[in-house]
């Protein structure tokens, strides 16, 4: 076992642990924190099913963002879609061929889409970066961390593309490494520069996820302005401080 | 104070360039100790206020999911940056919704997040200092809590919630806003925002009965404190006092009269407005709302109808049931509470009201959707009823109706510029500049369709329009109450029973 393998194995365990615990903790906090009043942005659905549809449109189509800014929507949507495609493509490094998902993941379509999705991802990120630099309003609200986040994602996409198109990695060995991680049976990591960079940055991304604005992913589902049913007259809503000392004068 | 220029109305609404600091000087008067006292807030900045403010922030975040989620999830995408009328009217980047949130988020990050504790510069985290407090005081009083930004935010981040929290923190360490807090005190002491005591209210209403009798020959009543009436009407106290509000009140009375439904006002709960929402004060919000429940019980009414007022309708529609419900002692065949527009609309649907629309033929009318009605409440059974129903009531009363541009009405409506507790002369510059997008849209329908009047269902909007229309060279009496239009056209031919 090489030093590199030891370091990366440890790094990935640590990163996964931080990610799962960190995001889990935040989700727990969001779920536990009461929303005392009804505050959906109206017009809002008047049924639970309607809220599901509203949320689905937000998650899948970024509907509000579309209303707001077509360019940001375009680049943001392209980026997230290609992220999804890349994720599917990467599943083949993490699934064993016996898995029932394997035939799906191994589809030519999934693999090709994921492959070229890398370019789309870079394009989306570049567009977002350009907005951050050239639109005075967006530049004004950007912190250093906002730029660094885009650069980090671009570096991840870039190093991935390098491996796909320029300097191939030993995929069989890589797969043995990832499966080894899952089965707690460490396997040697093929030492290729791009792979090391790629994996290192992904680990970094996992680590900062729970402490950064990447929390928008779980946060969206908890946003009361979007996920509340508009029925305050029909159904009395009380949570948190509005559920405490509800003593009101009674008739008679 | 009046040392500013009204922005010119151009052909289209353009997004202005960022010019930092243009509204830095705008700040409302600070509440004196005697104004803070009735609201149970410290009279002046307390000792150790920095720690106390930070602590209060933590408390609020812990007890309010919206705040918790909103402070974490903003990705600085910028989608909201050109959506606030105060930014569009002033160019001041701190009036961009996300930048306004960041004034508070930066402090939250510093004290409550790992990244902000370790790398404050990197993530834009700041210590709580006097200059931060001053900035909060200035810019959280440049937000009318209109929620327009939230419509466009991919995570629904509502800057109104953030500004309410900021105001609550400031109040709790002793830095309150004079305008709002003084008014809330008047409600506790006298029963309404105006500080109109019962005898004066009775007097006003008697005067109105005489006026209407003189104008129409019909005995339209304006009852107050009548036990056993069917309907308790809760309306903003401006309706007792100012033009064009009072025409609206006359309109409600005529509708009740014509429908033959007995109704009453309450001298104890003679106010629909609840400014405690603007300052994010939980206990005062509830305390104010409780007066209405008490009045309904005391008078033994069966229904509660709410007059034309935007934020009051939000509080009534969205919060009353939560805060002071359940209303199981009222007639559940009707929504509790019911908006006066819903009430009139139902009667129109049942063919119980007839109109002589010609009475309004001197007008071409457009409708200004008030923020809190549009984005924080509903009317009728279906989502968006809050847009359909008031328009239907107007169209029943007037022949000539035109809407303003689609991206300036409905859920996209622009604030009048005076909502959220900013309707005070010490913020006049902000109010004039913040109304720019609305005035722009109005000018367009004036030029293209000869619109002469704009109707609204909000006391704040009406007062704000009356004040700022002349700055943009529109006549002050262009602003109308929706029920003022009803009042002009409704037939009062009910057979006396
Ligand atoms: S709530 Fe309205 S006033 Fe406040 S920041 Fe958002 S758009 Fe501006
Ligand atoms: S639209 Fe929402 S996420 Fe984007 S910058 Fe504004 S508040 Fe942040």
How do the strands and helices of this protein lay out in sequence?
The complex is a heterodimer of chains A (252) and B (497).
Chain A: H1 3-32, H2 48-61, H3 63-68, H4 70-94, H5 102-105, H6 108-134, H7 136-141, H8 144-165, H9 171-182, H10 193-208, H11 216-222, H12 224-227
Helix pairs in contact in A: 1-10, 4-6, 6-8, 8-10
Chain B: H1 33-36, H2 49-62, H3 65-73, H4 85-90, H5 97-112, H6 114-118, H7 120-123, H8 130-139, H9 148-152, H10 159-172, H11 178-189, H12 198-216, E1 231-234, H13 245-259, E2 263-264, H14 282-299, E3 303-306, H15 310-324, E4 338-339, H16 340-349, E5 365-367, H17 371-376, H18 385-397, H19 428-434, H20 436-449, E6 453-456, H21 459-468, E7 479-481, H22 482-489
Helix pairs in contact in B: 2-10, 5-10, 13-22, 14-15, 16-18, 18-22
The site of one iron/sulfur cluster has 14 residues of chain B, from helix 5, helix 9 and helix 10.
Highlighted features:
heterodimer; A: 252 residues; mainly alpha; globular; B: 497 residues; Fumarate Reductase Iron-sulfur Protein, Chain B, domain 2; 2 domains; 4-stranded parallel beta sheet; 3-stranded parallel beta sheet; 22 helices; binds iron/sulfur cluster
The 3D shape of chain B can be described as globular
Domain count of chain B: the total is 2
How many whole angstroms does the radius of gyration of chain A measure? 22 Å
Topology pattern of chain A, helix = H, strand = E: HHHHHHHHHHHH
Oligomeric status? heterodimer
Low-confidence stretches of chain B: none
What's the number of helices of chain A?
Answer: 12
Radius of gyration of chain B (CA) equals: 23 Å
**How much helix is in the residues of chain A?**
55-70%
Outline of chain A = globular
Query: What is the H/E string of chain B?
Result: HHHHHHHHHHHHEHEHEHEHEHHHHEHEH
Mean pLDDT of chain A: 93
β-strand percent of chain A reads under 5%
How many strand units of chain A? 0
Given helix and strand content, the structural type of chain A is mainly alpha
Largest interface: A-B, 66 and 79 residues
